[in-house]
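Hey there, shall we discuss this one?
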Amino acid sequence: MDPITKAIRIRSDKTNEMEHSSPLFLTSSFTFDNAESMRSAFADETDDNIYSRFSNPSVQEFVDRMCALEGAEAGYAVASGMSAVFASFMTFLKSGDHFISCNAVFGSTHTVITKYLPKFGIDYTYVNGQNMQNWEEAIRPNTKMVFLETPTNPGLEIIDLELAGIFCRKHNLILNVDNCFATPVNQTPIKFGADLVIHSATKWIDGQGRVLGGVVVGKKELIHEIYLFCRSTGPAMSPFNAWILSRSLETLDVRMERHAANALYIAQCLESHPKISWLKYPFLSSHPQNQIAKRQMKNGGGIICFELSGGLDAGRKFLNGLQLLSMTANLGDTKSIASHPASTTHAKLTDAERQAVNITPGLIRISVGLEHRDDILQDILQTLEKC
């Protein structure tokens, strides 16, 4: 069956009530019939549920559906996307280790990499995602992992996953890919050699701005290590959130088609606007990595970004002039959202760090929603007139 069919049909076992939609297992713990079955569960001799910090049927259903979409052997769900990022680092990196990361990453990921991992004696090197010579020069004897986002947040840089896979196999490194912007119905990094794939399920996977969630999928032996780390450290996903996210996966494919169609239309309409210095969308021929995007993505996704000619002041005027689009710290919603990364998600970067990854003072990121495309466009056009 197609992965989309699998993701819709995979479910937890039916109860005696024979329900069509999976029930919510909202419980902190699970009981045993006898002492021996409890002992064997704690000894990891069985897969019986013990405690919802370890595992839960609602959470496992969500994980199984994500694995089907990503083509992964196994997965583990956690409380948020940043929990997934942190767990993927701390499970496999120790004091004295080094890893390579693309220099364009989400603001909170940058903070973890630059502020917190060094406290554990873990070193890093940022590289240009387009320059494989940079990657080769960054290799050290103690390098263990490559981490990357594609498309990147917020600049929509596309990194060639096939080349990344070849590089990591050559140097025996773990390839760890944040696939949040693309979603698993649009891009499957495992096909290109990724060992781990991370998502903030809070974004497109939920799709309605309701719940937080994160997930890591990949090779079974690596996911088992992540499970052991998270079982002890406690970033557990709420069963309720997992139940919501499982329902959301049933419509992810059709939602992303509409998000992408709206985004492409709006990008085409705005590309030559006189108030915009440049605009990026992966499936526009003007995007620097357009051919890579078309090779590894089903569509261009639901994010567009552009630079306002008036810089920082124009960025503020743009946000303040919006009448339909929301200003909020999220993306991937049914409702269209505008943000100004330089003053919000990437504010903790220095000016030099923002400049290195093309986060300019007038950069605007639009998460294109499911409203009628002309209504979204008209709100953007009317506020551009005020900039």
User: Anything to note?
Assistant: The chain is about 40% helix and 15% strand. The radius of gyration is 21 Å.
